[in-house]
Amino acid sequence: FSNTKMSWRVTTSPSMEYNPATDRWRRRADLPEPRSAHASATVAGKIYVVGGADVAENPAFGPAIPTTFVYDPKGDLWNSRAQMTVARIFLAVTAVADKLYALGGVPRGFTTAEATLQQYDPDTDSWVLLPDMPFTRANHMAATVNGKIYVIGGRDGFIGSPTPPPSTVYE
Phi first, then psi: what are they for 94, rounded to 5°? Predict the structure, then answer.
């Protein structure tokens, strides 16, 4: 590593697949656009990649982009889907009952977090806004257990936020 330059400003599009049974990695089809600060979740055996930074404008923290891509591992193929109604970076995404939920995030790097909640339906290829979360969130995680969404950690602002908001459960 002594001759390797590391930079957090480099954003890439390669996709990799890890097989725990064989302890091997293999390259898969590239994400159609390089991005950073995006989120992903799975629905019906497909991987959805949502939002992120427009690295063409600014490789570090470009403006948020509303794009949604779906990856089909069986065909090793990416497809573009409907755009989010509110573009964000540093958001969280999880799935419940074959629908995606995009929670929080920020519209541009180093700005105030949002409480935005959106739902994506793969069957209709459409996003809808839902009532905001009770707290703003960025750099957080979301997970689903027994049909409930758990939003954990993160920041209620971005720069200078002294404490994370409390963890929240949505039913």
Answer: -145, 170
Please answer whether residues 53 and 63 qualify as being in contact, where contact means their C-beta atoms are separated by less than 8 angstroms: yes
Q: What angle do CA 7, 8, 9 make, to 5 degrees?
A: 85
Place of tokens 């839902």: 130
What's the pLDDT tens digit per position in 2-45?
333 334 444 567 899 999 999 999 999 999 988 888 999 999 99
pTM, two decimal places: 0.86
Residue type, 34: P
Token pair listed for 52 = 């992120």
Which residue in the block uniquely carries the two structure tokens 């074959």? 98
Strand partners, 70: 48, 79
Strands 35-36 and 53-54: antiparallel
Q: How far apart are CA 132 and CA 120, in angstroms?
A: 15
Residue 117 neighbours by CB distance under 10 Å: 20
